[in-house]
Structure prediction request, 160 residues.
Amino acid sequence: MELRLALLMVFCTVSTALADNELARGWGDSIAWMTLDKGLETARTEDKPLMLIIHKSWCGACKALKPRFADSSEIAELSEKFIMVNTLDDEEPKDKKYAPDGGYIPRIFFMNPNGEIISDVYNESGNAQYKYYYPQPDAILSSMRRVAQTRGIKEVKKEL
Prediction:
């Protein structure tokens, strides 16, 4: 009986963890991902900035960025200071504000708690025609730090 109870507890724990990571979609299981609607609501109530990734399952650039993003412990650590959202395929928001310089993918936006895109935070080392395209995690991390600094959020460094 004790073995059955222990197995049931393990199953429930694993099932809960998998359900929580369902929205990760390969972008980092340790990150607390939300849907866009839930993320916008939570950003408002918790007064936190939101990071939005718009990507497609068939996109080569998205497929290339995803594992590098997921492998970045620095992004995962700093993500705790943000509301994290990634939209896949048909979940892409239809509002034109999410395509200010085109509908290319992937696009990564930072938003204030009121749901407005922070237009002065973009990939400064990238192509000026595609400001919200980030092919490298370092550029994403740089923008995350910039948003955190302007909001007075101190980056927490984990001790090794």
